[in-house]
Amino acid sequence: MRSRSSMPSSRARARALWIGWPLLSLACLPQVDVDETRVDAPRILALRTEPAEGQPGRETTLRALAASADGEDLPVPEWAFCLLRRPLAELGPVNRGCLALDDDGLVTAGAGLEVRATLPREGCRLFGPEVPPREPGQPLGRSVEADPTGGYYQPLRVLLGDGPPSVLDARISCGLAGGTPAEAREYRLRYQPNVHPRIGAVALSFEDEEALLRDESGTLLVPRRADVRVRVSWPDCGDSTPLPCEGAEPYLAYDAEARALVTRREALRVAWYSTSGRFRDERTGREGADRGTTSENVWTAPDTDGPARLWIVLRDERGGVSWEALGLLVE
Amino acid sequence: MTESRRLRAFARDVLPRRLALVLCASLFGLASPALAQSGGADEPESRGVQPRGPTVTRAPELLRFVGADLPEVEHTRTGSVTSVLRLLIDVDGRVAEAALEETSGNARLDEAALVAARAFEFRPAEVDGRPSPIQIIFRYLFTFDPPPSSNGSLEGRVVERGPKRAVAGVRVTLSGGKLDTPRSDITDAEGHFSFPDVPPGEITVDLEAARLTPMSTRETLGAREHLEVVYVVGPWASPDDAAEGDDLEIVVSAPPVRRELVATSVSSDEARGVPGTSGDVLRVVESLPGVARASVGSGALVIWGAAPEETRVYVDGVPVPRLYHEGGLRSIVHSDFVEEIELIPGGQGPSYGRNLGGLLAVDTRMPEEAGVHGRIAADVLDASVMLAGPLGEDVRLGGAARWSLLDLWTQLGRGEEIAEYIPIPRYRDGQLRLLAHPSAHDRLELVVLGSSDRFARGVPNADPSLSTREVRALDFGRIFLRWSRETKDGGAVSVTPWIGLDRSARESTYGDILTRIGANTLWGGLRLSHRRKWGERVVVEAGLDAELSRSALERQGSIGLPPREGDVRVFGQPPPDRIAADDWRVTTVGIAPYAALDLQFFESLSVSPGLRLDPYVRTVSRRVPREGELPEVGLLKQNFAAEPRLSVRHRALEWITLRGAFSLTHQPPAPEDLSAAFGTPDLPPARALHAVAGVDLRFEERLTLEVTGFWVRSSGLAMRDASDAPYRARALVSTGSGRNFGAQALLRRSFGDGLSGWLAYTWMRSDRRDREDAGWRASDYEQTHVLAAVLSHRFPFGIEMGLRFRLATGFPRTGVLGAFYDASRDRYQPIFGLQNRERIPLFLQLDARVSKMFLLGGTQLEVSLEVLNVANRANAEELVYAPDYSRRDVVRGLPILPVLGVGWRF
Predict the structure, then answer these.
(1) pTM, rounded to two decimals
(2) What is the ipTM of this complex?
(3) How far apart are CA B109 and CA B77, in angstroms?
(4) How many alpha carbons fall within 13 Å on the CB side of residue B899?
C-alpha cells in the first residue's frame, strides 16, 4: 500500500536547504494547495455509463454522483453528447466547443442523476480508429489515436446548475488500429470489454484497529479529531487471463512500440471526499503491477460535533467507476 | 584629501566642459603644517604674510570656494595664468576686502578672480585662541586644458609565423595621413611596439629589419581609437644561424570580411570576471544585448525572440547541439580553451546558415604559454582540470575535463529523498586539442569535444495517475581537424573536416502516460574558407559549408509532448493521453557554397555583399504511419535556396559609424518533426528575413555606444494542426509565421585601467501567427524589456570585484479563466483566456563576485566568492495553479546563494 504523502517532508526540505545548490528553488514551493477532498458546494464527484464500454449506436445508462455539503438542493445534471473532435493543437481532453452552453456539436442526452440515452453512431469515426471519409482532392484523413489502454472515447458534457461544466469520456468499443489483420482478428476474439469495478467492502477503524461504535440507528460514531482508518477493497481478478471482473482486470491491448498484443492489468484509483474533517491523501491507488486488492486512507474527524458524510470513488484505468457513500456522526 | 585637491575636484565639477579651472590656494605665513605642505607643493614662490600682534593659533580655512565667471572668449585659451590677490578676512570668515596684488597679465581674468574671491567663505583665523580678522595672499590659478584630442593610438606585436614567437628589433615606422613627420619604434623582446597620440585617418606602416624584406601596409585609425595589430613575419632565426642573404618576408594578412553588423564579442579574459557566471566565460552570453533571460535551470538560448531551436551554436565553425549543460549551470567548453565568444543575433554573413534566429560562435584556443601549464578548479557545482604542454618542437597538446559534483553532495547529505523532488543534473565534458605547425605557414589543429548530460526528476504520489518522472540524457561528441594557412599574397585558407555523434533520450511519465523520444545522429561536415586581398580595397572570401546528418529516431507516447511554441497549456498540466508510436530515419545532405566581398569606398564606406547557395536533399524513411505489416515507404525531398546577404558600414564622422545589414536564411525542419505519426514527413524549410540598422558612437578611447534596430520576418514555421479534421501524416503544418522587431543598445567600457563593464538594454516585440487567417499573438519567447548591467574592476594585489544587475520582463503566458471537471481522469482542466496575454512577473536580480589571486611560487591560486541574488529577491520563474485552478501562485527562483570556488593555475 502506498502511503507516501504527495509533498516533500519537512525533513527533506531541510536537507535540501542545507545542500543549497541552485535548483533548490523548488524548495520555494508555491502555495496553491487546496483540499480537493472537501465537499462544501454542489459538485459532481463521478460520472459513468452502463455498460462501462458501450457500442456506438446502442443504448446506455448515464449516471452521476453529485454531492453537496448539506445533501440538499442539488441541481439536476443535464447531459449532452459532444460530436466535436479535438484538434491536435488543443491539449485538453475535449474540444473547447464541448464546454459551450450551446453548440451545434452538442446533442442533448437528457437530465437527471440517471439517464437512458443512445451512444452516437459516428463515435468510432469521430473519436476512434476509423479513417474519416476522404474529401475529393484531399489527402486521407487522420484517425484518432487510442489511449494507453487502447481505448476510444465518446465525450459527454454535464452541467450541474450554474457550476462549472463536467466532461466524461465514455469508453466505446471500436476494435484495434495499427495491427495486422491477424492481430485484429485475435483482438476481436480475446478482448473483453471493460466492466465497472466494484467496491467490495469499506472498513473503518481507529489507528489501533479498534472498531468504531454505532448508535442505536446504526450510524457510526467518531470522536472529535479522531484519526479513522478507512480501507476499501475490491474483488481479486486472479491470474492474467483477460476476463470480465469487477476488480483490477487483466485486459488485452496492442503495444504499438513492440507491435504485438499484450496483456496488461488495470491500475485502480480511489478518490476520497468528505463534507467535514480531512483525508490524509486526496487519492490513493494501486498500479497495474500491484496485485493488492485494498487501498486505505486516514480521515481525521473535525473538531466540531455533527454529521459527516464520506464518499469513496473507485476508478479503473479503462474508465470504469463505482462509488460508495458513508454517514458518520462526530461527537 | 588635501585642501588643494578638494578645490581641484570642485573646480573640475563646476566649470564648463573643455575648460578645467584649477584653483591653487596657498595661505602664506600661517603655521599649519598641513597647509604649509600643500602650499609649498603648489607654490614654490610663497610669500608670507607675517601675523600682526599676538600669535596666530589657527589659520583661516576656505570653506566655500566660488569659481570665477570667465568671459566667453577666455574659454578657448590654453595653458595657465595666476592672479595673486590680497584678501582681508573678517572675524566671521567673510572676505571684507579683496585687492589685486599681482596681475595675471589679463585684466578680465584678474577681475573675474576678484569677484569670485569676494564670495569666498572661510573658517575665521584665531589669534591667541580667539577669532580675529586676518589678511592673506591668495593665488588664483587658472589652468586651461587644451581641447580633447581626437588622436588615437596604435600598438601591436610582430611575431613569427607558425609558433608565434615574438620578433625583436623590427623598426616600425608610421607616415602619411596627418602625421607631420614619420615616427618610428623598435620592437622589444616581446615583439611589442607602440605609437600613442596618432592622428586619425589612413596611415602607412613600414616594417624593416636587417633580415627582413621591407614591407609596407596601411591602417585606418578612427578618432580616439586604440588599434591593436599583429604583424606576422616569415620564419625568423637569430642572426647567428641565419644564412647569408636569406631574406625573410612579412605578411600582412587580409582581414576577415566584416559581414556581421551586430556581433557582440567578448574576450574570455573579460568574461571570466563577470558575476553570475561562476567563472564560466561562456555564460557571459546571458548578459549580452538581445539575449532573453532564460528561466532558472533551463539554459535555453533565446535571442531576439527566436525559439531556442532556431539559434545555432558553433565551436570553431562546427555546430554543436547545445551551449550549456542541462540546467544551464555550465557551458560545454572549458573556459581556458575559450578565446572569444561572438553573438550574432541577426544579419549574419554567408558563411553560416540553416538557422532562423541568431548564432553563437565560440572560438577556442590552445593555451600557448611555454612549458607545461594547467589549472585545477572546483566549486559547489563541479570540478575541472586542464593541462597543456609541448609535445615536441612546434607541437602542443592540451586537454581538459570537468564533472559535476551536485549528485555527490546529494549522496553525502543522504539526500536521496530530495533527489526525488529536485532535479539533480549530472554532467561531464572534455576537450582534447593537438596543435602543430608543420611549416611556417601552416597551422594544424585536431580537436575532440565530448559532453554528457543526465537529468532526472520525479514527484511520487499516492495516486499512481499523478506520479510524474522525467529523465533526459544527451551525449555528443565532435572531432575536427582544422588546417589553416596564411598565403604569401596575404590571404588565408582554412579547411575543417569534422564528424560527430549525438545521442539523446527523453522519457517522461505522467501517471500511465509514458512518452519516450530517442535519437541517434551521425554527423559529418566540411568547412572550407579562402580569403585574400584584391588590391588595397577589396577582400574576397569564398567557402563551402557542407553538412551531412543521419538520424535514427524512435518515439512513443503522447502526441502533445514535448511542448511546442504556441501550445496553450499551463505549467505542470498533464499531456493528452492519446498516444502513438513511430520509428523513422532521416538523412539530410546540405552543401552550401558561399562568397563574400568586402569593398572599401572613400575610406569611410565599407560594403560587404555576399551570397550563399543552400541546396539540400532529405530522405525520410516513412511517409505514412506504420500500419500492420505494410512495408514502409519513404520520401525524398530536395530544396534549393539562394540566400543573399549584405552589410554596409559607413563612418560618417570620426566617432560615428552607421551600419545596416540584410540577410535571408532558411532552416530545414528538425528530424524530430518528420515523423509520420507525430509530425509531417514532408515539412518544407522555414525562412527568415533579417533587416538591421544601427549606429556606433565612440565617445573616448574605451567607451562606446552601439544602438541597433532590427526587424525579422519568418514564415513556414511548423505548428500543430489546428483543424478538427487533420490529414494523415500531417500533425504539423508549416503555416506559422513570425515578426520580431525592436532595438538594443550597448554602452560598453573596455579594459584599460582595470575597470570594465557594459550596460545592455533590449526592447523588442516577438509575435507569432499560427496561420494566415489568425491574429498575431505574443511569442512564447518574448521578453519586452531586457536589461543587463555588468561592472567589474581589477584592483591591485590580484583582487577583482564585480557586480551584475539584470532586469527582464517575464515570458508571456496564457491566463486561466476557470476550470471544468474531467470526470474520467478525476481532475480539473483549465479553461483558457486569450493566448499569451499574461506574463510572468518582472525579474530583477543583483549578483556579486569577488576574487583574489595569490602567487604561490610560480603558480597562482585563485579564490572566488560569488553571491547570486544578493538582495534575496523572490523572483517568479513560472506561474502555477491550484489543482482546481481556483488559486494562482508563482514558482520562485534562486534565493541568495553564495558559491565559493577555488582554482590553482600552474
Answers:
(1) 0.76
(2) 0.92
(3) 12
(4) 24
